[in-house]
Queue: 4 jobs
Job 1
Amino acid sequence: MVERLITKNPTKLLMVVLDGVGGLPVKDGKTELELARTPNLDALAKRSALGLHVPVDYGITPGSGPGHLGIFGYDPVRYEIGRGILEALGLGLEVRETDIAIRGNYASVERVNGKIVVKDRRAGRIPTEENRRITEKLSEAIKEIDGVRVFLAPGMEHRVAILLRFPEPLPEGSDHITDTDPQKEGLQPLIPTGKNESSERVARVLRKFTSMVEDVLKDEPKANYLLLRGFSQKPKIESFEERFGLKACAIAVYPMYRGLASLVGMNIIEFEGSSIGDQILALKDVWQEYDFFFMHVKKTDSYGEDGNYEGKVKVIEEFDRLLPKVLELKPDVLVMTGDHSTPSILKGHSWHPVPVLLYSPFVLGGTSERFTERECLKGELGIFPAKKLINLMLAHSLRLAKYGA
Amino acid sequence: MVERLITKNPTKLLMVVLDGVGGLPVKDGKTELELARTPNLDALAKRSALGLHVPVDYGITPGSGPGHLGIFGYDPVRYEIGRGILEALGLGLEVRETDIAIRGNYASVERVNGKIVVKDRRAGRIPTEENRRITEKLSEAIKEIDGVRVFLAPGMEHRVAILLRFPEPLPEGSDHITDTDPQKEGLQPLIPTGKNESSERVARVLRKFTSMVEDVLKDEPKANYLLLRGFSQKPKIESFEERFGLKACAIAVYPMYRGLASLVGMNIIEFEGSSIGDQILALKDVWQEYDFFFMHVKKTDSYGEDGNYEGKVKVIEEFDRLLPKVLELKPDVLVMTGDHSTPSILKGHSWHPVPVLLYSPFVLGGTSERFTERECLKGELGIFPAKKLINLMLAHSLRLAKYGA
């Protein structure tokens, strides 16, 4: 419904995502946000609209894909991002409508009575260095199969992303292919099979690919096989600009978040360095060229996942020190939030609602003292679905016409 | 779901709509509601359930139509009220299921090589007085076309509402007719065309109507043509009484709100005068005859739209002084809210959640000190969709049976 109310104006909208920023009490009954000394954020919070968003649904812990789709204004239940696509994006591969992305695991197999049997599904978790060497070898040997180009990117340990690029866009459902990982040692790898005509065409290429891989890796001591799963296509998503009338860019360091932003058609800004300060300089450089800016800060999540609450607190404090530089840009609407919570005590993503701060001239404000979970609960935005956040940003930049007379 | 839980009892439910009552800080960091001296409202707020409603959806600014449908318990996205219908209601025309309502603009045209060309789409914004004279003249000349009765009502400047009343109810889609306004000067007016059989039948009448108008107005110096748009039918809406089991009436001064209430089948009460005091007297007069009372106070919105916060504050204070008279009626459930917010600083409707006060013997209370945006945020009702407000009123009057065993 919002689509037909979109109007344009020269306002600038900035969304800063502190990945996994939400937390739980971890020391002295305080969360990471509560432990952090944040004088600049505190001052801003006092004159902003505060609340919390529910990323996917009550009690649902989102991965990075659904977490970001939600705050980008897309229903994360309707648009699913396949495991292969996310793996490929995370390893820096660009994905197109012509592509099938696959998550691969290097494995150890042996021949028993002429049959291939899986001995170790992860090839003894080979070192990442060895993975790189093997993936390089495969890339050299297999560049194309029947006109389909093949791209590989090494991940950590035994993990690898594979991309098949067909000459033309593939119909929906071309990724309906059975995994080759038998999920248990001692069994034979499965043969990839398509569930319909177009996916069977992909499966034919995969069968050739598998036997070529087998040939290239036959003398490897450990990683002499490649198990395939998570076949997926780029989801059909209307671009952010088509949908919200906002020319958008992403200022992110990590490939997965750059990839997620590019999935919805945001431009990915290249810049020197990787610190928060470098990101703000990049923001400044392109400030005149876009309407919407997505800036992604990763380390809050990384430390949360490690259970290192002090590290997470430090990243929040570092951002706070740099906040005045962000405010100098005078965004018409500034949102600060996370894609999900990552409480240090859980060492992982969680389902908890995520603090949101929205600054604009058209807020009530004065409800809360700080940008923390508990202070956000007092705010004027309440607890709302993440996918509505963009509507609120559009409204506060006066980019939505009245609905009905 | 609520429909099958409806029970009846002799309780009285009163909804007072202070149009556009919600606001934003406008002076000393205070909103209009916060600036107003409201001792009676304050006392009531302390023992009421408070919260805020979201009229249509997060970030969506509603017109008066969707704003009222929501608080009347109807999904404002599902039921759309056409521009022609709203115009007709606003100018005091009654609309029926047999009717097509149209928004008309008087325009200036000239003949160029035998063709009619639009010179001014608004006839130089003729004075309202001239509009009245011309509309009167048209009404006299065109009373009926092929058994279809024609009604006209003059609006402000060049605006006019037209109603075609057919002998029998029209099927849905009979209003799918192309506008005649070419949207640009120098072009020919368009010919109204139906997109299906029943709308083409309406279009035939409209083509005759247009040429009759042309004939009647041919000697007018400015307004010698009438451009037509916003063709619409009365939406198919289950009546308030059928849906909620409440015999309902409306005490409203302005035609549009009387019209909106009549759309859902409320009885419109006629009364002397137009002040809030007059409305309360009218309420008293019919108190024994109905279950549900909708009382609409317009001026909060009018002053908000003018950016006159002091005016808005005064209307709130005026209502506060008269509140004891309302309470003397001893409603079992009293709700005070707005159909949307109209912050004086925005000089128009806005998307901000709207304060709600619900008084009944069955509330928690004690959460808040006043009926203001910020105090309502602390209330027991939270932030909820407008269309749920009637459910809450029914529940608090013990008119809803238990769901499930």
Job 2
Amino acid sequence: MKIARFRSGRRVAFGVVMDDDVVEIRGSIYNRFRMTDTRHPISEVTFLAPTEPSEIWCPGLNFADHVEFAATVLSGEAPSVPDHPNPWHKGRNALTGPGEPIIIPKDSSGDVHYEGEAVAVIGKHCRRVTPSQAPRYILGYTCGNDVSDRTWQGEDWTFWRAKGSDTFAPVGPWIETDIDPQKLEMIVRLNGKEVQRCNSKDMLFTFPEIISYISQQVTLQPGDLVFSGAAGVTLPIKPGDIVEVDIPGIGVLSNPVAAEFDSSAS
Amino acid sequence: MKIARFRSGRRVAFGVVMDDDVVEIRGSIYNRFRMTDTRHPISEVTFLAPTEPSEIWCPGLNFADHVEFAATVLSGEAPSVPDHPNPWHKGRNALTGPGEPIIIPKDSSGDVHYEGEAVAVIGKHCRRVTPSQAPRYILGYTCGNDVSDRTWQGEDWTFWRAKGSDTFAPVGPWIETDIDPQKLEMIVRLNGKEVQRCNSKDMLFTFPEIISYISQQVTLQPGDLVFSGAAGVTLPIKPGDIVEVDIPGIGVLSNPVAAEFDSSAS
């Protein structure tokens, strides 16, 4: 089932995507809900980031082929392959939805990269769950783009702006509830050209392992988002580009790239 | 004015603390509100963390006398006095209120310290404000405890659990709107004995400077919390302790310390 959060006119609602329609639901996507008789053609709604998370989590380096690349970005550090996840918070302010622009800050050096990833959506409060218990706390999976300013990533002590600037967390277009999360092909297209193809089977830590690890000290909340981590080598994006994260079986998250309006420019 | 969030019976409300009462308000603390005729004796309400922030921000090292201490905690790094704030996210899951226990996780080594700090409360959305503009986006100030597991702080790549474990962010008891934020005496008492006395005049970066810096890439939201950073040397806290953060002119944030219930212990 594909569960979407969307805007129709001025109203925000949740629904289930069926063929070319979104069928509105009543109830909570985290508990019980039922379909209503209200259907909207997909072409007439705006899909939003599928949840309003209390936190957005990323696992640190989680693909062997990204470790070497990371060494070139993080100045003065040569990361080794980790023996446990290294969770960090991606700023909630950065969250944005399908179709919304990724805005390059006017004071960025411009070395801003996509990172196309799969994203687990937490369905129930969880604390101190084991990896084998974790799947029952996951509602489903969606697509995410861990947009990253490589200059700030190298300069700063944390990722607060390198990966947490406004609009640097596009997520969507909806949550797929019936899919094997460790067999996801994760494709990125930049202006229609494929620039990344990797598979979640190569994650160093699976989604249940990451979620179990975080849950040892943190209560995860319904709607929280947990990114897979990025694979391989990435490329810069520039104003005017279109970047798509395509995970067959889930959907396509497409975002244009724009420059921040600079009111001080002459 | 002292603005509090509190629970009375099953109801959560905002109010203004006047003498021994809390006067309920109607409206939004971030926009306009008015007093109602409903008064509760302070002794009959439970004060809560004064906002539900979208993010909790800390500035990195922000007192010269804490820099040297930090070098002993962060293995392999000798921090120098920073030339700009180094913002990081304290986990929202960690937020807790006055009187609530700080719970030492059962898998902590036990080297958990208080850090008594002043906390700015954002009152309005702000992005790209200057330090001179920032004060008008600040609603007021409260007390906070940046509870820190020094072992995890040294071991981990980020502060996700060292400073973000559940209950590691006590904040309260209320928001004082009329106070000079750079003249705050910040006192910590452990079991009634004074263990810290420092002053916000010694912050390397003032609250307006920190908020301006973060706002260059991040939209701050009403209710967001910005900690001052800690001063000096801190001490461990243990189950059974009571830790108080006292900022004269604001109030006293008091929390007991407890051990996590370990259901696996015999």
Job 3
Amino acid sequence: MNRRDFSLRLAGAVGALSLGGLPPAAAHARGRPQRPSVMVDGDRINRHLMELAEFGRNPYGGVSRVAYTEFDRQGREYVMGLMREAGLEVSIDVAGNIIGKRAGSSPALSPILFGSHIDSVPDGGNYDGDVGVLSSIEVARTLRARGHVTRHPIEVIVFQNEEGGTIGSRAFVGHLPDKDLDLVARSGKTLRDGIRFLGGDPSRLSTLHWKTGDYTAYVELHIEQGGTLDAERLDIGVVEGIVGIGWWDVTIDGFGNHAGTTPMDKRRDALLAAAKYVQMVNRVVTAEPGRQVGTVGKIQAFPGAPNVIPGQVQTTLEIRDLDKSKIVRLAQQVMDEARKIGAENGTTFTFRETYLSEPAMMNPAVQKVIEASATSLGLSTKYLPSGAGHDAQYMAQIMPTGMIFCPSVGGISHSPKEFTKPQDVVNGANVLLQTVLALDAK
Amino acid sequence: MNRRDFSLRLAGAVGALSLGGLPPAAAHARGRPQRPSVMVDGDRINRHLMELAEFGRNPYGGVSRVAYTEFDRQGREYVMGLMREAGLEVSIDVAGNIIGKRAGSSPALSPILFGSHIDSVPDGGNYDGDVGVLSSIEVARTLRARGHVTRHPIEVIVFQNEEGGTIGSRAFVGHLPDKDLDLVARSGKTLRDGIRFLGGDPSRLSTLHWKTGDYTAYVELHIEQGGTLDAERLDIGVVEGIVGIGWWDVTIDGFGNHAGTTPMDKRRDALLAAAKYVQMVNRVVTAEPGRQVGTVGKIQAFPGAPNVIPGQVQTTLEIRDLDKSKIVRLAQQVMDEARKIGAENGTTFTFRETYLSEPAMMNPAVQKVIEASATSLGLSTKYLPSGAGHDAQYMAQIMPTGMIFCPSVGGISHSPKEFTKPQDVVNGANVLLQTVLALDAK
């Protein structure tokens, strides 16, 4: 099924979200939305969040549950237990992703996939990834508790090593080349050893290559890492897409010289040029309307002594936007302006592109389903881009994909301070439940 | 003898520089300067420069004759051989400095000291230090060859480890505290072990504490590391003083955050503040007339990833000037302006002074002697500060001190590209010779 077909088919489902729980037939009643009666057990999700937080817990708060570590393995064991309690048939694919399956009533239909990840960055928090995984399991458990059998098979997925480069989701769609398996992950293990450690089989990765048509849709609930929902006191974010990312290594060459003996007007100071560059990037990126962001995150001056005029500076450029052509255009503008800075103080700029990812647009029909689901629950919504990468960006390559954001206080993530209010977690889970049901209702 | 006395006594000597070689009485002939007849052997100095260059020679040019290494030891052996050939009585003081002595005709007079250093930075050149040492030995050799006995004893000194913090000259005037002996030098040896390696006795350093009155004067010939003489095609620099140096460690605290999800207007980017800081330092330092210099030579952003907004930047500030109050005032201005930058983008600046050295003024009478010596040789001169530190700055604490600069092409130093034309070396050596004779003539 290509995306266009899916969009057309979904169009009928939108507005039919007041499925009102069981029996499923009720989901098809048209007219003014009424509050759905099937809801997740909010206390249970939040309890599970606290329980999962034990694996890799740090004394100062948060967790370090880095992929391929013992804490990661323990967390996965815990989650697999929850999946079994939810009546899911649990397996680990060759890439090490955990999948919990439940059959649907129409064997010809391809599954609806939903989930997220439970690995964390070092010194991370308890919501990034976890909220999506535990809510997905809760959705499956709720459906089972209510005796509701979906038409499509459902599959809850826990992608492995999202934080270390969306490894599990890349493998899922066949985008993890064999040569990458020798890369060393944060755990110290290579990806190959890590996959083996999780129960996967790296030698059979090529057999895992899901394609368009294999799945009906993918939905991921995740905390919003940008703080927009929290700042604007909104309940649910409907993700329009995951931004593309461009990275450049930037080298600025001047002339290193003695800081004591070289008069100010005789200098070709690479750091002075770098200072102008950093400000210029900020100016170029903010000069036009839009939600593009541009960042200089890394800088080093050489030789790097207080008493030597820097002869070289190595720095970076990152630009993100939902529109790849905008990324490329802004980068070009930065390069042009950099050339002028160089000409002014006798330095030269060299840009080397190191990464340029495609923006991943979320499926418009799934976006509408998510919005309608939230509205049916009385929740406020906002359409927004995801500035961070997610497993969903790879799912979007082979199936209609949607992401649901719930607020993160202050937009803080990758930090022990990461926090999503219990009610916001529950809201997100209920929107996920209604979205799955609406997608299933077709 | 205090400096004032010395200045008065020297006043009579200025203008008497056409001493015209031997017999010494001729030096006292007054009237229009005539070209001195006693001159160094220029070919010999330049040949010695090339010979010394062999010890620590790098395949790509220049030398790495780092203090306390085997190459340093070999270079010192070579130089001690030259000293003996020049008729000097060679010894190594407890600090590891090499001293070559020759008695004067008036035993009551305190010695005239001249010299420099032969250690280099890693990947250094063949002129910084070497020119002064080899010219000093040549001056002694010339006097001996001409049978000229000075009134004052003369002492040629090779200070050890100038490049690693003017260690030998500091020890010479009692400014090397015992605790510093455990510092590790570039060679990997501690200063204590390095001094022992050179034949000194670190346990007896306290016995080496020359005081005001012990010496008549110190004169050092050195290449000019600033390029002013070369740019203005001048022969000789008369050094007015060695600048004071202030160093500050600067920490800028912002808020580290996800570069993808944090909108541009919600950032407290420490590197953006640092960029403004670097430009501001340049602006403040160049805003007023004078030869002060200000440099930001070191910078690092934390966490330092292309996709994270820097939460902290660690950088530096260095200001140099002949006037210490100007250094302090400019630093205060930088701190005030930094506070404004911080207030604008939600970051805070912290400055920590790590070093503040006193400017070392050269003795005005010695300066005049140097100028007159150069003029008598038909050489053009310019009064200028030394932006770099030299052993002379410690000598200036206990005796009237002067420095003679000869041009370095392009002002390049601490580099294999360091080069002083043979004739400029010879000019410097002849000015040193005439200066020593004039000082001796009182």
Job 4
Amino acid sequence: MAGGIGGARFLRGLRAALRADEPTASITVIGNTGDDITLFGLRVCPDLDTVMYTLGEGIDEQQGWGRAKESFAVKDELASYGAQPQWFGLGDRDIATHILRTQWLAEGVPLSEVTARLCERWRPGVRLLPMSDDKVETHVVIDDGASGGRRLIHFQEWWVRLHAQAPALEITAVGAATATPAPGVVEAIADADVVLLPPSNPIVSIGTILAVPGIRQALVATSAPVVGVSPIIGGAPVRGMADACLTARGVETSAAAVGALYGPSLIDGWLVDTVDAGAAVDGVEVRSRPLLMTDVEATADIARAALALAAEVRA
Amino acid sequence: MAGGIGGARFLRGLRAALRADEPTASITVIGNTGDDITLFGLRVCPDLDTVMYTLGEGIDEQQGWGRAKESFAVKDELASYGAQPQWFGLGDRDIATHILRTQWLAEGVPLSEVTARLCERWRPGVRLLPMSDDKVETHVVIDDGASGGRRLIHFQEWWVRLHAQAPALEITAVGAATATPAPGVVEAIADADVVLLPPSNPIVSIGTILAVPGIRQALVATSAPVVGVSPIIGGAPVRGMADACLTARGVETSAAAVGALYGPSLIDGWLVDTVDAGAAVDGVEVRSRPLLMTDVEATADIARAALALAAEVRA
């Protein structure tokens, strides 16, 4: 299961580790689609694309999302028309992906098949499944300072435009309750040898995937060991603004608290950073090691440690 | 009434002439939408955009269509995905227009209102109306050499991909019979002081506009003088491949034949080039002068001659 940047980078390490150590192994990724948004009529799936571009060598390495060597002619033109919103940085290369996706969705092709078609070009070396073919969009209730009222905005507006600075009173995955897992999702969890939760945002990435009825249950039911990698190191997110999401849910920003949020019903093992070596989670095996994904090789070693912990808890 | 390049250039001259000679005059353009096509789910209106970009100083002067200083990142990306068709040159700046148009059309905004919104940016100095808010698409029946059969293709495929080289057995405006004129079209013709037919393609531009029920009738009924400018000089189109269209309809490629095609029920005056000074059209006043639209000033003089002929036939 994976969100965007953190998940994609972890997957690149995992893929490298398996290619070296276990070349017959295959990876199925269940991607978060709660960040999806329709902009100018185009359907944008930021997390699926980040995984696809990262594993397909098309990502902007520096920023971690979007395409390398990107240009912004379309965005500039849309701004010249005065079209809103202008706070989302849609690049020209990236837009081609959204145009095709939107065209296919309009033709009735489900998102899982659309994603498979896009991956025919990118060959990410994993099977990338959206968590659901149904539309699920994370929305955030913020305190609207000006009017003193509560305002419901799309997650992307909160994250990208407001940089998660406006305290979230509530984070909710609109549409999740009636969504069904995409074809292959429940089966992948049931048939897996190991299930890994990468250091993605536990609320709006992993949490949203788990909010699709059937997925949490599949995770609880699978005979495979489930191991998570903490996205929190020394009380702060490695990257991104997961703390703002955790706070909104009343969860402390600590490796131990996130481990406890998943808890023993979901995970068997929890990998934390060396600085969090003291963290304990009731009913869960906790191990510590350096968790900074500085490069692919370092990340592959983190993935190896997660797989080793899985082997340990399976035994 | 106007098609693409020829119509747009004539309009630029007409606008210059009126600004100088009659600054309170206003121009309403009835644009051809039969060339419209949906590519990758985006609705493209080549003739409306050519008029809008030309009068709005955004046109690629050299090629006469598309945006100046254009880039093609999106097109290249779509090709990398293997998406078809690849024979239509959608530029990045141009695509922004199509994205907005498609978004608004999907929201239920009629094309005439979409066009007005786009013109808020371009300020073309004319009121630009599509001939109809209904979808009309010109299709061409060609002889499919390979299989010996007849094949129906979109006008753009014939024009852009095949360069009108495959003989057209039939040219038909699909949807025209049941289309209705866009709001303001019939009124503009009825209330006009002068109606001009610029040197646009008489079959697939002016002809398609006239194929919308009500427009030809409005032209016949208006009390305004109607004057056309020949798109044919010395037996050849000034630009484009109008000869291939005329041949498909059994009309000779000559200034006289096109004048007769419109005929006295539609036009009162017909302006031809000096080389066609001998052309006569029954029941229509014919005048000759140089018709090459070499620059805006030369084109303004052509427009002045058309207006003078209109004044003459009115008297």
